[in-house]
Amino acid sequence: MRLKRVLALLCAILIVFSSGVMYANAEKTQIKDLNYLKQIIEYIKANYAGDITEEELIEGAIEGVFKKLDKYSDYYSPEEFKEFNTSVSGNFGGVGIQITEKDGYITVITPIEGTPGARSGIKPGDKIVSVDDVDIKGVSVNRAASLIRGEPGTQVKLGIIREGIDDIIYFNITREMIRINPITYKIMDNGLGYIKISQFNGNTYENLKDILKIFDEKNIEKLIIDLRNNPGGYLDEVIDVLKFFVPKGPIVHIKKADGTIETYNSNLDLPKYKLAVLVNGGSASASEIFAGAIQDSKVGTIIGTMTYGKGTVQSVVPLVDGGGMKITIAEYLTPNMRKVNEVGIKPDIVVENTAEPKVDLSKIPTLDKTRKPTVGVVGLDVLGAEMILQILGYKVNKPDGIFDETTFEAIKKFQKDQGLYSYGVLDFTTQDALTKAINEYAKPDNVDKQLQKAVEVLLEK
């Protein structure tokens, strides 16, 4: 909002200048440099009728500069920069709990194992109502997280409502350095190793090294690497990770602003693992570096859907006021010099995980509970009930909206199966039960077709 206000002011003041002292004509043109910007800010300060500070104007001007750059370059205020670094690095001072907003409360999803939050006894479902005696009901998740985090060694007091306990419970917890592990893994029943990497943060390489050691001890060499919805992360992390998998040769090429190309290489003599890599439209940046390197080096099969297409590299620069900037400095190319930016990585095997309902509910008339039809009644509610019963496998004549004896018997059987009073009347309770049943039936199958294909591919090798 502040940026929009400042930009609007700049547009307005330039109109004023067209008839004032900074008028530009054919004989004299005002040079637009930093001094020009300074004059604009000074003019606004002296003449603007609203309430705005010089700091706000300067920050708005800086933000305006970044609006002229690509969508991945950005400017961060001190508070924003702190949150950015936390999200990317995976390390922060805190208590180690995952939170969300639910029913107006900041609610604990789960405490992270081995952290102060877990040791103190915080439980999933706990509602946090205060931080250091400040009421946080209704605040955003980001704001709550910012209040709970702090320097390691300092204390934070959390007020919690817990189901079954009338009074607020208070926890005084000493913060520690929390290191987020972005990897989960398991050994599947078929003997394949499964590794899910949610982000290439500063802890990815070390955690993956430990997981691969476990797999090596069990002689597991066929791995599924799941990068779906992984937005990316640190360039050096993904390069280090790829050195476990990519044979000797290029991993990625970095094309800099001046046109020079820097190549990062692997020194791995003989790849140990056979890979299937899962990607989708949420796989971006470092995830695409990973997928591109595996695809070009032919040490694995890429499965899923087209990736996002972010093929640029950003440099993060801290500023003296505690803020920071992220600026695009290069473009990366796959080992075979393929462009990724605005293109993406096309999987070797395209598999869609469809989420379409089995039934188009919009074509079924609503059971609106305005009456209780029985034999002989005609209407859309009867038609809706007949259609639902037919889909659910009950014997009815062709749905026509006429409540006949066949419909009566079908409703009686449905009522009996649902544990309801079985008397053949389409009462309100039965209408609710039919609606609930068809909604459940219509839900898409939660079958992970992409994962199934990965298993199939690896087991064939």
Topology at a glance:
Blueprint: H1 2-17, H2 34-47, H3 54-67, E1 74-76, H4 78-89, E2 91-94, E3 97-102, E4 105-111, H5 116-120, E5 127-131, E6 134-135, H6 141-148, E7 155-161, E8 169-174, E9 176-179, E10 183-187, E11 193-197, H7 204-217, E12 222-226, H8 235-242, E13 249-256, E14 261-266, E15 274-279, H9 286-297, E16 300-304, E17 312-318, E18 324-333, E19 349-350, H10 380-391, H11 405-417, H12 428-442, H13 449-460
Quick overview of this protein structure:
This protein is of the alpha+beta class and 461 residues long. Helix content is 34%, strand content 22%.
Write up this protein:
With about 450 residues, this protein is α+β, with helices and mostly antiparallel strands. The chain folds into four domains: about 1-70, no CATH class; about 90-180, PDZ domain (Pdz3 Domain, Roll), CATH 2.30.42; about 185-315 and about 330-350, 2-enoyl-CoA Hydratase, Chain A, domain 1 (Alpha-Beta Complex), CATH 3.90.226.10; about 360-440, PGBD-like superfamily/PGBD (Muramoyl-pentapeptide Carboxypeptidase, domain 1). The chain has 13 helices and 19 strands. The protein has helices spanning about 1-15, 35-45, 55-65, 80-90, 115-120, 140-150, 205-215, 235-240, 285-295, 380-390, 405-415, 430-440, 450-460, and strands at about 75, 90-95, 95-100, 105-110, 125-130, 135, 155-160, 170-175, 175-180, 185, 195, 220-225, 250-255, 260-265, 275-280, 300-305, 310-320, 325-335, 350. The strands form four sheets. Strands 3, 4, 5, 6, 7 and 8 form a six-stranded antiparallel sheet that branches. A six-stranded mixed sheet has the order 10-11-12-15-16-19, with helices on both faces. Strands 1, 13, 14, 17 and 18 form a five-stranded antiparallel sheet that branches. Residues about 1-30 have low confidence and may be disordered.
